[in-house]
Amino acid sequence: MKVKFGVVVFPGSNCDHDTLHVLRDVMGQQAVYLWHRDTGLQGVDAVILPGGFSFGDYLRCGAIAKFSPILESIRGFAAQGGTVLGICNGFQILQEVGLLPGVMLPNRGLKFVCEHVCLRCERNDTVFSRACRQGQLLRIPIAHNDGNFFVTARELEQLEENRQILFRYCDSQGRVTDEANPNGALANIAGVINRQGNVAALMPHPERVAEDLLGGTDGRLLFQSLIESLLAGTETGDRIPEAGRSGPFNRGGREAMDIRGVPA
Asked: d(Cα 7, Cα 92) in Å, to the nearest integer?
């Protein structure tokens, strides 16, 4: 049995093909593109909002993308327990639509940062991190101009109390230090999860380190976590909401296409 993923495509997305490739060709699962103007989710088991620069990041990152018709369907999917993951720009979009807390400010150095960073897994009891060990260090690249995670002091307390911090930037020894923080993110936060545990996002790009050919495979752990969790949920019948398989969130949509627009 395979998991069916939907990868959302906005004008300006540039990691959609990478993400679909990893899901379909590396992890061996089903994957389709979901165009931002569509309203159907094609019966997917999970939705991924990939990295890029949706609508050119005009106004602010994700501010225009949040008005895309597909987001209303994703909100409904998430409200019924559907699994949603945001990567980089996808993180920013999920914040804009209110599915995840906080905002992304410009990097503290006011420069685009593109480099490998070290992450520490803060929780391994989620659908997004079950394949990781508690405290495991992952080497994953970042590429963003606005990754400076910010919330109010009270909101940060709530994130800590509710164990909503998934990943933190750290050094090679696992120490969470300011020197290991590439963008000024509050409390070195690189990834968070909602209180319900079905929506999460991170700024680093796991799809860029999912094959030995690219110099590392640490990113595969996140996709492996999703696959294991969703397959386990399918067996017990309590993971994938009906909205993901049929009903108002399953009309329309597009099949996976290659870079030329030809059905794959």
From this structure: 16
* pTM of this structure: 0.89
207 has catalytic annotation: yes
Known catalytic membership, residue 36: no
Does 161 participate in catalysis according to the annotation?
A: no
- Residue 55's identity, in one-letter code, is F
What would the pLDDT profile of 46-94 be if each residue is shown by its tens digit? 999 999 999 999 889 999 999 999 999 999 999 999 999 999 999 999 9
- Record the tokens describing residue 112, joined without a space: 């685009």
Contacts of 42 (CB under 8 A, 6+ apart): 4, 6, 32, 34, 250, 253, 254, 255
Exactly one of 15, 88, 121, 170 is catalytic; name it.
88
Q: What single string gives the DSSP state of each residue in 115-179?
A: EEEEEEES--SSTTTTTSPTT-EEEEEEEES--EEE--HHHHHHHHHTT-EEEEEE-TTS---ST
Contact 25, 16 (CB under 8 A): no
CATH class of 4-245: alpha beta
Domain ranges of the chain: 4-245
Checking 75-80 for CB contacts under 8 A at 24+ apart, the result is: 75/99, 76/243, 76/248, 76/249, 77/41, 77/47, 77/241, 77/243, 77/244, 77/249, 78/198, 78/199, 80/241, 80/242, 80/243, 80/244
Tokens of 182: 């590439």
The two three-digit tokens of residue 244, written as one number: 């993901």
Q: Tell me the two tokens of residue 201.
A: 């996002």
